[in-house]
UniProtKB/TrEMBL annotation:
Protein keywords: DNA-binding, Repressor, Transcription, Transcription regulation
KW DNA-binding (keyword) present: yes
The protein's name: TetR/AcrR family transcriptional regulator
SUPFAM superfamilies: Homeodomain-like, Tetracyclin repressor-like, C-terminal domain
InterPro entries for the chain: BetI_C (IPR039538), Homeodomain-like_sf (IPR009057), HTH_TetR (IPR001647), Tet_transcr_reg_TetR-rel_C_sf (IPR036271)
Domain HTH tetR-type as annotated: residue spans: 8-68
Species the sequence originates in: Streptomonospora nanhaiensis
Residue ranges the UniProt entry marks as DNA-binding: 31-50
Superkingdom assignment: Bacteria
Length: 204
């Protein structure tokens, strides 16, 4: 059991090294040797886990997505948000590159996205992870409807997909554009978006 745990931890160590390498050099210029050097291990050890760069890249993306999933699951720990609106807002915030770890992950995410157009397995992984994220927000919006927090007739699935797309747009502009999309404006935009979703039409 300990040996399996050691292997799993070594694979995660290599995945983290991959993210740092891609974040620094870009995907096209990152080699297995770069990743090995970043991880402080031999190229042979990296190749013992991942025979090709494509296998390593897919594992790195999967690791990155699992990190995001863990942050969402952590919201349910303890008492959790008091309302559906608060959960949706906090969950969406965890998807934004507003600390060093998430900034690195999402910078790498931008590098990986073009690969999903040519690599069927990368495309499958990206679509499955996006679907899970939309599912989570759809479930939250369904609870919001039942609790009377959302206006009747709100399309939970459509709004969940729209929110994911909106957050992706904020992420891209925060990383690439800056200026009007620095941290404070991005958070304000997200809060305004969520508030409009949960607004009571009778109070307007």
């Amino acid at each position: 059991m300990a040996r399996t745990a050691d292997h799993d931890e070594r694979r995660r160590q290599v995945a983290r090294a991959l993210l740092r390498s891609v974040g620094r050099r870009g995907l096209a210029r990152t080699t297995l040797a770069d990743v090995a050097d970043e991880a402080g291990v031999s190229v042979g050890l990296v190749q013992s886990y991942f025979r090709t760069k494509s296998q390593l890249l897919r594992f790195g993306v999967e690791y990155m997505y699992k990190q995001g999933e863990a942050r969402l699951l952590a919201l349910a720990a303890g008492e959790g948000p008091a309302t559906v609106r608060e959960w949706v807002l906090r969950a969406a915030e965890t998807l934004l590159p507003l600390d060093d770890e998430r900034r690195l992950e999402l910078t790498v995410w931008l590098e990986f996205l073009p690969a999903t157009m040519a690599d069927a397995e990368m495309s499958r992984l990206h679509r499955a992870t996006t679907r899970q994220l939309v599912d989570a927000f759809e479930q939250a919006f369904g609870e919001g409807l039942r609790a009377g927090e959302l206006p009747p007739g709100t399309g939970a699935r459509a709004e969940a997909a729209a929110l994911v797309a909106f957050v992706d747009g904020l992420t891209v502009h925060h990383l690439v554009t800056g200026g009007d999309f620095s941290e404070a404006p991005v958070l304000a935009s997200l809060t305004t978006y969520v508030d409009r979703l949960f607004a009571d039409p009778e109070s307007s």
